[in-house]
Amino acid sequence: MSLVTTIANERDLRLGWAAALFSASASALYTIAQVEPSAPAALFFSLVPGIAVILWLQRDASRTGIASVHDLGFFLWLTWPLLIPWYSWKTRGRSGWKLTLLLFALILSAHLSQLVTGACVGFVRHVM
């Protein structure tokens, strides 16, 4: 199963995609403008994609019946770097690494966007 197939199969992840796209775009625009976002905006860009992924994981866990923790959302919030790979492997088998990469990319989208945009802006300024 390819990475594109994995992404297509996770259709309920639309909220995560929207949050990641908005956060990454806004973060890139702030980086291009070389303006530091306000504290609430930076917090929003960092937290909202992660919350969207955690909400999806809760829905998916209730569908698969894998994680029967009383407050799964809070548990995921505290331990997501460890639980996402475990959950992906447990529910998707050997192809779970694709889901793990996808979820980590969505959660870290604003930071990755800022890093890539900053590198591109720095390269263009250096060349000019």
Description:
The chain is mostly helical and 128 residues long. It has one domain (3-127). It is built from six helices and no strands. The chain has helices spanning 3-9, 14-33, 39-64, 72-92, 96-107, 109-127. The chain is elongated.
> What is the string of helix and strand elements?
HHHHHH
Low-confidence stretches: none
Estimated structural class: mainly alpha
Averaged pLDDT: 86
> For the CA atoms, what is the radius of gyration?
16 Å
The percent range for helix content is over 70%
Keyword list:
mainly alpha, 128 residues, elongated
Element layout with pairings:
Elements: H1 3-9, H2 14-33, H3 39-64, H4 72-92, H5 96-107, H6 109-127
TL;DR of this structure?
The chain is mostly helical and 128 residues long. The chain contains 6 helices and no strands. The protein has one domain.
